[in-house]
């Protein structure tokens, strides 16, 4: 029996998940800020940062959708062993993992309800790289403006049109991550 | 084979607790499953500023009303190398603050401090420190009643609808009735705010003197209500507007006195009754701020004023 599913988790879960969470918290509180995490070694091609996010936030209470590029037997058994998270179709997911193109269309995900806008998906989007160049964004958590290579600004328009419902995104590349919560806006649109 | 240990991820890990404080607790007391649930709620709370996220609050080894919500938020955020400060109405040395500080010293082994500027995480009951918070700091509020509309509309089903529909007229009626009865907005604490122009939020029972400090703060502000099972948040640099009227603008309020110990003219003051004759003394509510000023050589009237 292959043992790959057993390896690559947190060696010291309480401390490493706390460190990963603080990085995600800081990223979510400061959209556009790039944080570094390390600790998790999920089976390829899943990024260490995406793996660490899942180990920190996913468990049997969260439904996870794996896009085709990360939907392998190795990753399935790794995720199931370490988190126990049920794997579901995109429409039911609390977390959806993959590249931007394969996560489209974005209107297939849960965006919450008027009474409970928090019952919405968090996309964990794997990118070749995260840089502080690209889309100029503003909103809560950003002092004036920030720049981030967001894969598609359509997400920001999607969220702006549905506020306070919407989709939150954690971008990851290698061991880096950045977050774009639904409150983030395109600076060009806001300026008027 | 350190992989074997990963199976214990959902249970208390005695190893990390030993490393942290020598006690048989998981790091920061809570089990990992509970922390994950709280962490998910915190991230959604940051993404929807001012919105109250329901969470499965746990029983804590202290009674409701003693900061069980704040303690759970702090436990979910704490890192082993954090420096923790705990205040109760501004003071570092009152029962609530001392017991929560000791709780995390024992269960997380973190460093603690009384100096606002040294702390990376501050848990507070009913005050915001006088010293301006800086980027990188986290302020965790203990919240008794998170729902600002609760005393106007007791039904949760209705208040949830009111938030969904952005129907906050009732709150303005309440403030208006304050004016018609008292001639001014008499609400002095738990003064309602609107966050990013959307959700009306209870800032916890901080004096309204502290309300302006929430607006555009560089720190991350997290709110935990244990008994009521709600978590909400204000990210840094967020618009926080205290509700008011054009002709009755919001006014922060403080006693028209100076601190008897340090002479501060800009801090929030506590009134202390000195004897049966009605002698009063005003002192800074923020003990760290007052102590810092005393060290810097400032001097008040030492409470001799009668």
3D architecture notes:
The complex is a heterodimer of chains A (192) and B (306). Chain A is 29% helix and 18% strand. Chain A has 192 residues and is an alpha/beta fold. Chain A has one domain: Bacterial phosphonate metabolism protein PhnH (Rossmann fold, 3-Layer(aba) Sandwich). In chain A, the strands form two sheets. Chain A has a six-stranded mixed beta sheet with strand order 1-8-7-4-3-2. Chain A has a three-stranded antiparallel beta sheet with strand order 6-5-9. In chain A, strand 5 and strand 6 form a beta hairpin. The mean pLDDT of chain A is 92. Chain B is an alpha/beta fold. Chain B is built from eight helices and twelve strands. The N terminus of chain B is likely disordered. The interface between A and B is large, with 49 and 56 residues.
Using brief descriptors, characterize the structure shown:
A: 192 residues, alpha/beta, six-stranded mixed beta sheet, three-stranded antiparallel beta sheet, B: 306 residues, seven-stranded mixed beta sheet, 16% strand, globular, disordered N terminus
Gist of the model:
By secondary structure, chain A is of the alpha/beta class. Chain A has 6 helices and 9 strands, in the order H-E-H-E-H-E-H-E-E-E-H-E-E-E-H.
* SSE class of chain B: alpha/beta
Oligomer: heterodimer
Cα-based radius of gyration of chain B, to the nearest Å: 21 Å
What is the helix content of chain B?
25-40%
For the largest interface in this structure, which chains are involved and how many residues does each contribute? Answer: A-B, 49 and 56 residues
What is the element string of chain B, with H for helices and E for strands? Answer: HHEHEHEEEHHEEHEEEEEH
Question: Helical amount among residues of chain A, as a percent range?
Answer: 25-40%
**In percent, how much strand structure appears in the residues of chain B?**
15-25%
Strand order of the largest sheet of chain B: 1-9-8-5-4-2-3
How many discrete domains of chain A?
Answer: 1
Number of helices of chain B: 8
Number of beta-strand segments of chain A: 9
Q: Determine the N-to-C terminus distance of chain B.
A: 72 Å
Query: Unreliable runs of chain A, pLDDT <50, ≥5 residues?
Result: none
What is the correct CATH architecture of chain A? 3-Layer(aba) Sandwich
Shape of chain B: globular
- CA-CA gap between termini of chain A: 61 Å
